């Protein structure tokens, strides 16, 4: 039950931070405006993104809305299997981030299902502009890789890698 609760709490936090940040940026910046945020390292650059990462698939916004909806449903369905707090964070980050960008696609201009995602963070020498939801999704994938490499399963158990000990048949018998 704790894991399921953590999924929900993390998802809500990511969603609220994402939509709150977007509201602040939209209220204070014009589209295309660039403002230093953390010196030259991080700038605020307000853009509206009709596609996926790097604006790929800009003419297929509705497909991204459908895919994001399917991801949200899958995350909710599979959340019941989670017993690990680490995996609960993965699911919560992914659910919150996906829901934040899906919200944009459903309720922002130019219309339902084809809305553009609001992006505004730009890192020095990084070509993409992104938002808080994207940070949640990227963090989820990073944690996913860490948990997978460590052998931690959804139920919290750990898959141990057995070190194969050489048996007599594996040892060469004829030495030069």
Taking the sheet with the most strands, its summary is: 4 strands, antiparallel
Termini distance? 62 Å
Share of residues in helices? 40-55%
Give the beta-strand count.
4
Q: Report the principal-axis shape.
A: globular
Return residue spans where pLDDT drops below 50 for at least 5 consecutive residues. none
The DSSP helix count reads: 4
Radius of gyration from CA coordinates? 21 Å
Q: Please, how many domains?
A: 1
With strands numbered from the N-terminus, the spatial order across the biggest sheet is 1-2-3-4
- Give the strand content: 5-15%
H/E element sequence: HEEHHEEH
Mean pLDDT: 89
Structural class: alpha+beta
What do these coordinates show?
The protein has four helices and four strands, in the order αββααββα. With 176 residues, the chain is α+β, with helices and mostly antiparallel strands. The chain has one domain (2-166). A four-stranded antiparallel sheet has the order 1-2-3-4. A hairpin with a 3-residue loop joins strand 1 and strand 2. The mean pLDDT is 89.
């Amino acid at each position: 039950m704790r894991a399921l609760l953590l999924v929900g709490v993390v998802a809500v936090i990511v969603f609220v931070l994402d939509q709150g940040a977007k509201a602040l940026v939209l209220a204070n910046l014009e589209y295309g405006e660039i403002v230093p945020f953390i010196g030259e390292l991080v700038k605020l650059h307000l853009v509206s993104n009709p596609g996926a990462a790097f604006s790929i698939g800009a003419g297929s916004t509705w497909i991204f809305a459908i895919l994001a909806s399917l991801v949200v449903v899958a995350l909710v369905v599979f959340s019941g299997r989670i017993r690990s707090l680490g995996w609960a964070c993965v699911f919560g980050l992914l659910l919150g981030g996906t829901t934040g960008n899906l919200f944009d696609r459903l309720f922002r201009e130019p219309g339902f299902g084809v809305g553009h995602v609001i992006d505004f963070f730009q890192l020095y020498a990084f070509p993409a502009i992104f938002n808080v939801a994207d940070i949640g999704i990227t963090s989820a994938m990073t944690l996913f890789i860490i948990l997978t490499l460590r052998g931690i399963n959804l139920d919290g158990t750990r898959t141990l890698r057995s070190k194969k000990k050489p048996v007599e048949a594996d040892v060469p018998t004829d030495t030069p």
